[in-house]
């Protein structure tokens, strides 16, 4: 091994940063890491404002994973607190825990009805299971059907319409399947064994991840600016959008975007927790209050209202891939094009055109690195 081989990593989110670190550290490659933005950490970017509150620029980010390997890797670069995310939805003016669970049931209905519904739920489903809302809607029993309709109408339908800009029946099942009803009293949003907020913040965590003598970082640099040198790299790892890489020659992959509007207040707290969902009211889907994540104490607070909107190139950012058969086929056609360049590897949520959590983005980079390990070592 020698540090003579040069590779290019495009994008300095978790996927690109992980790949850069593994290449620099484990196979001694020289890495040029670029990002077109002026900051690190991709969509997980955070910064401290003038009041010492850590703002997540692209919306709340909570780290959670089932993977010990991913947790151990990221924990080399930061400590985590033991924050456990608990979200409520504002339903008819009441804060109801989501995912909807047996605690939510008690808050929404009078005790006798809640008792009856809970008994029937436990007769029908095993304790602890998660039932996708649309499967729950298939229940024939009158009481359970009533409950399913309630959850669908009050928590699921309008939120999904706002989020995706289409009614739930027109939204891909892969998305709707992610919205569960939970047959337990566990009110946490995530149930992964490892979760928390990096005490240093995400940006500093990524900065430490890429702090290595073999890594050269160039922010504010688009791939277009180094494309002419592409042949000088033994591999290119590209975590930008695959359709953009190919100059949209087969068409454009659809994405959903969001507008995040910040508001500052001269009082300590705005709401009861970090995230409150507004399924039916207003045009925003959620309000985030960032100071909860690191328990930052100050007389001010900052909230962010999250407005889903259509992705429009040049106007806003790609947030969520919009799953559909046609989008899947288009993505596949782009990966077929990529076959012609064995030294070119796509990764990350944009390169793979998949919704990834941060841990998935790290795990994907690890998996790709493992797959190529032999080749990289030779
Ligand atoms: C609103 C919202 C909330 C989220 N909340 C959570 C959460 O709570 N927990 C969680 O685990 N995950 C969350 N995620 C997902 C998380 O943001 C992603 O998993 C993570 O950002 C994926 O990392 P990545 O490296 O694949 O992509 P990105 O972070 O998007 O990084 C890709 C980078 O590539 C750069 N790039 C693209 N094209 C080019 C180019 N041509 N030239 C140079 N650079 C380029 C971009 O500027 C970007 O910085 C959330 C996402 C959103 C949208």
Task: Lay out the secondary structure.
Layout: E1 6-10, H1 14-26, E2 30-35, E3 46-48, E4 54-56, E5 63-65, H2 68-74, E6 87-91, E7 94-98, H3 102-108, H4 111-124, E8 130-132, H5 133-136, H6 142-164, H7 173-176, E9 180-182, E10 194-196, H8 202-209, E11 215-219, H9 223-226, E12 235-238, H10 242-245, E13 255-265, E14 275-277, E15 286-289, E16 301-310, E17 320-321, H11 325-338, E18 344-346, H12 348-351, H13 358-377
Parallel strand pairs: 1-2, 1-12, 2-11, 6-14, 12-18
Antiparallel strand pairs: 3-4, 5-10, 6-7, 8-9, 13-16, 13-17, 14-15, 15-16
Helix pairs in contact: 1-13, 3-4
The structure holds flavin-adenine dinucleotide.
The site of flavin-adenine dinucleotide has 34 residues, from helix 1, strand 2, helix 12 and helix 13.
Walkthrough of the structure:
- A hairpin with an 8-residue loop joins strand 14 (275-277) and strand 15.
- The radius of gyration is 22 Å and the shape is globular.
- It has helices spanning 14-26, 68-74, 102-108, 111-124, 133-136, 142-164, 173-176, 202-209, 223-226, 242-245, 325-338, 348-351, 358-377, and strands at residues 6-10, 30-35, 46-48, 54-56, 63-65, 87-91, 94-98, 130-132, 180-182, 194-196, 215-219, 235-238, 255-265, 275-277, 286-289, 301-310, 320-321, 344-346.
- Among the domains are: 6-40 and 210-251 and 323-377, 3-Layer(aba) Sandwich (Rossmann fold); 99-182, no CATH class.
- A 7-stranded mixed β-sheet has the order 7-6-14-15-16-13-17. It has a 5-stranded parallel β-sheet with strand order 11-2-1-12-18.
- By secondary structure, the protein is α/β, with parallel strands linked by helices.
- Helix 1 runs parallel beside helix 13 and helix 3 (102-108) runs antiparallel to helix 4 (111-124).
- The protein starts with 5 loop residues before the first strand and ends with a helix.
- Bound molecules: flavin-adenine dinucleotide.
- Flavin-adenine dinucleotide (FAD) binds next to helix 1, strand 2, helix 12 and helix 13.
